[in-house]
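Field: COMPLEX_INPUT
Field: COMPONENT_COUNT = four
Field: RESIDUE_TOTAL = 438
Field: MODE = joint
Values follow.
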Amino acid sequence: MSINRRLAATTARLLPGLNPSEGSGRVLVAALKLFAERGYAGASVRDVAAAAGVKPATIYAHYASKEHILAELCRVGHDEQYRGVRTAVLESGGESREQIVAYVRAHVGFHTTYPMLAVVSNSELHVLSEDLGAATFVLRRESEGLLQDIIKRGVQSGTFKVVDPWLAVAAIGGMGLRVAYWFSPAYKLSAEQVADGYAEFALRLLAADRPPVARAQAG
Amino acid sequence: MSINRRLAATTARLLPGLNPSEGSGRVLVAALKLFAERGYAGASVRDVAAAAGVKPATIYAHYASKEHILAELCRVGHDEQYRGVRTAVLESGGESREQIVAYVRAHVGFHTTYPMLAVVSNSELHVLSEDLGAATFVLRRESEGLLQDIIKRGVQSGTFKVVDPWLAVAAIGGMGLRVAYWFSPAYKLSAEQVADGYAEFALRLLAADRPPVARAQAG
DNA sequence: TTGCCTAACTAACGATCGTTCGGTTAGCTT
DNA sequence: AAGCTAACCGAACGATCGTTAGTTAGGCAA
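Field: COMPLEX_OUTPUT
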């Protein structure tokens, strides 16, 4: 339509295994796209139904309410994000440097792979009632807590140097969040390159020591 | 109401001189608060009218449509933001280091001083038609272009070291944007401290040289 | 007082909102 | 062939949406 798009991505990707032509999945993908592009309140149930190739009444055969659709998207999104960063950090070495790189690469990777899911589950979360949002809030806190723990540990060991660890959490988390809005496969840098760049940014932001062993290479 | 607030700020601050009890200003401040907290589509004209202490019809004596209210908020917000960073950079010295510090401090300062204005003018902008959003888009490009120019200049002079200047623009801009969502006067750090911290983060992210003259002090 | 202007109001328009109810279809089991 | 189940749809409910037309109240000039 117009120049002012909410996010650069144009295709709604949901987790593998959930996309298929089954009714419930079609509705979820359609809602993902419309909620991402227009916001939850800006996309009507009729819009979602039309995009899913279904009549409005059919949606209520799969979801109890419009809010339940959003709750499911938020839960799936935060679940995948937390799963990604947690796995990446666990599989990295014990060094704080490695952990931050693993976290940021996974974090940015989620926002480039699932931009619409990231936008919806982060910027529409406030609509959910306390009950429907509870599961998502837990995951959000876990993700943020993990990053905070990595940074605090690195500061204590002297690897990182920041005045306030939480401010670094906010900065690193914030710059990663925004990636979902401007990244698209058509961007001049690949998702891998963006993730690498942001990981380097995070290391610099934390004033991280150069790697302990030889193979050092500056950004 | 619930835990899940869209942003931490609770009071709607508009630019000085626009707040007063005059009808048009009351409506604008009320719309600012509700659009920030619930989103443009999530806040009805009746809600805005009630918050402003007037009847719905009165709003149309001051603004042609609901969209015009949003357009005005977006314009004011981007105008103030651009004015702030531009002035700060111009008043700083010619050194790239000083310019980045000035830019980031002003950028973060805007987001801590006018969090609701920042949230609305950045995350509801996509609703505006091409016509109504045109003025705002120009200002947005100017702001981003200014940051990009500062970084490019610093890279050319060897002060900064980044592989892709635009990626640094995205990272620095993104981390500043998010401040509007979590900052509140009740936060443990003052707005000044947050701005200082983010300026330091930006310098580190760009791998800036230590200041050329003596008075160097590490973060 | 009269007339006018501004600003706010009451009341309502048609459209669209989320949601529900009852019925229809398609496919499988027996 | 008969019966069951799950999925889907047509039609409509009351509520709320953005917006407008017409009216009323108050201040000021004549």
